[in-house]
Amino acid sequence: MVIEWLKLLFRNMQTQTLGRAAVRRRRHYRSTAPCAAEVLEPRVLLSAASVSGTVVSESAVNDGSYESLVTGDYNADGIDDFFFWNPETGFNRLVDGQSGEVMTNIVAPGAIDEYSEAAAGQFTDREGLNPGEELFIWDPATGQNWVFTLSVSPETDGEAIYYASALGFENSVVMQAVNGNDFSDVVAGRFRGVQGEAEDDLFFWNPQTGQNRIVGFTRSFNNDPDFGGPAGILISDDPLPRAAINGTDYTELAVGDVDGNTREMDELFFWNPGTGRNRLASFIEGEVSSIADNPIAPEVGNGNAYNRVVIGDFDGDGDGDLYFQDSVTGNNRFLTNESVDPDLMFSFETNVAAPGAVNGFPLIRSVNRDTIADDVYLWDPISGTNRLLDLMPVDPL
Question: Is 31 helix (H, G, I), strand (E, B) or coil?
Fold first, then answer.
């Protein structure tokens, strides 16, 4: 039952200015409609994936100083940046994806210590300010949360100087809506697709109980006379039936486009690495339009052969692909959609990247490094070792 106050704008927030903000327009995957799916035979590789060397200075992100990573284009230059963060101490480091410039504690550590979850998305449409992605940080127990805009902007006076600052808005989502450990996971994605409401939303989920909630944002930064921040508004309470995603039947969650149709919405991919079971939830205007059971045959991703999954447009064809990897062995599998809506058919390639080149990386993320395709970023918080995996096929000579 939707509580009455959840239907209203979440206006209980405080605003704290930590500096200047920068903005951009986020790239989005598109999403979906009812689908049936099958897995095709593995396709012939056009080329092996390429693994490049260090992207971020290893000494800047090693020794376990940072445990979490949230990527997003925070400064509107079309290239994803890296926000490294220690949830216990609050220490953080922002690395500009284009220049490699490192900025330490762009967010005051005392503001975000003892938080545990984070996501990046374009939550508000700030017309005239070059809208960009913001950072959402949240504590599932207390419900306390922040929305930050991060600024990484060069100013030239004989040489390039990078000024870094953050603007933070506290409890943009009412704490009582997301507290008490009712939810443990959060991801950002475009689930509404309504004209005038094309920004990202937050999807909160509890894998044990199946409880889930979509929270969107309203009120642009520059449309408020007092320069107010984003205000959360409930879009849907339990948009997915709890029984469909509870009992830890699924433990991993990824968001992105899979079929690449013309709707400006994302999908949610639920997956169990042990059984290989998976579900794909599609949205229309904030409501679930379909739930596909095992759109990927369970044997493709079962037996704990892989324990990580990310979605991105890795082959540059406009729709999302899935990259599975085992963080210890480096074994990997790359799945691409070979059809159009409403039928999904996937082809897959096993160990498209040499396992020895990508093993030993606990964290992997989908990142946008150019306008052609996404890449996979791999990072070891202890050694600081990091790599960039390019899955873009190359035509044979």
Answer: strand
